[in-house]
Design goal:
Structural class: alpha+beta
Number of helices: 2
Radius of gyration: 13 Å
Shape: globular
Largest sheet: 4 strands, antiparallel
Mean pLDDT: 93
Distance between the termini: 23 Å
Low-confidence stretches: none
Number of strands: 4
Helix content: 10-25%
Amino acid sequence: MPEQITALPSQALPHLAEVLATLELTPWNGRPHHEDNPKGAVRRWTFGPDQAGHVIYLILDDQREVHLLLVQWLDLAGH
């Protein structure tokens, strides 16, 4: 996971920091990763300009933990 975060462009980092701060308080506010499982513990959150950033994460309520599974940035400008 650290390599996914270090691979992000610098413009994505402040947006990711906002997402992480939000996940600490309200992880269930993210959308379900699979729409056919709306109560599933695997959630997703988009962030940044044009929603180019994506975080997929797992909520472990009984352990009061959130585990990042995937962090990615889509280069929508084609650079």
